[in-house]
Amino acid sequence: MGYLSVLLADDEALTRLDMREHLTKEGHIVCAETGNGLEVLELARMTNPNIALLDIKMPGLDGIDVANQLKGMGIPTVLITAYHQTGLINRAEKVGVFGYLNKPIRQEDIIPALQIAYGRWNDMQNLSKKIESYKERIDNQKKLSIAKGIYALENGISEYEAHKEILKEAMSSRKPLLMICDQIIKKNIAKQCCK
């Protein structure tokens, strides 16, 4: 994995300094940093980081609420905290953070946590794209099936024959098959409305 662009937020300046130095020493970029939860959102819009490393307890807006909003912006989050409360962990899980580090943070834990979190986030993005692709394929198959059924009924032929005829029409008109299906379906809807 190459370098990551990291948005760093912790209300303790010394903690931020230590983490920034470690991240840059390991070849990553700290694109922005702040100690205020509200500022994180503006910085995220301006810098578009690969990932955010956020303290939970910050002024303005806590890290969990910020993580929830960053998720909507397509930015995965790893949380850091000195508080080991079950309620915080449950909230963090519900908003979909990708990692959770307890303070005091060991330097050697930061990079693996960020890399694993970013890798899982990428996996989820790829899965979402595949799901969308499958949904589109299913929708296209439904459209073809409906068009075949309409064409078969209108012409008194089997769906198999209707499929062949629709393919012929697409080839001869040099139009995509789904465009022909749309035309058949719309024409049928127009007929139904005029009855």
Describe the protein:
The chain has helices spanning 13-25, 37-47, 63-72, 86-95, 107-155, 159-173, 177-194; strands spanning 5-9, 29-34, 51-55, 77-81, 99-102. It folds into two domains: 5-105, 3-Layer(aba) Sandwich (Rossmann fold); 131-194, Arc Repressor Mutant, subunit A, CATH 1.10.10.10. The chain has a five-stranded parallel beta sheet with strand order 2-1-3-4-5, with helices on both faces. The N and C termini lie far apart (62 Å). Helix 2 (37-47) runs parallel beside helix 3 and helix 6 packs across helix 7. With 195 residues, it is α/β, with parallel strands linked by helices. The protein is elongated and about 80 Å long.
Average pLDDT for all residues = 92
Shape type:
elongated
CATH topology of the largest domain: Rossmann fold
- Count of separate structural domains: 2
Strand fraction: 5-15%
What are the segments in which pLDDT stays under 50 over at least 5 consecutive residues?
none
CATH architecture of the largest domain: 3-Layer(aba) Sandwich
Strand order of the largest sheet: 2-1-3-4-5
| CATH class membership of the largest domain | Alpha Beta
Counted by DSSP, the helix tally is 7
In CATH, the homologous superfamily of the largest domain goes by the name Response regulator
How is the biggest beta sheet arranged? 5 strands, parallel
Number of strands: 5
Q: Sketch the topology as an H/E string, one letter per element.
A: EHEHEHEHEHHH
Please give the radius of gyration in angstroms: 26 Å
Q: How far apart, in Å, are the first and last alpha carbons? A: 62 Å
Class from helix and strand fractions: alpha/beta
Helix content: 55-70%
Modified residues (4-aspartylphosphate): 55
Domain ANTAR: 124-185
Protein name: Stage 0 sporulation protein A homolog
InterPro entries: ANTAR (IPR005561), CheY-like_superfamily (IPR011006), Sig_transdc_resp-reg_antiterm (IPR008327), Sig_transdc_resp-reg_receiver (IPR001789), WH-like_DNA-bd_sf (IPR036388)
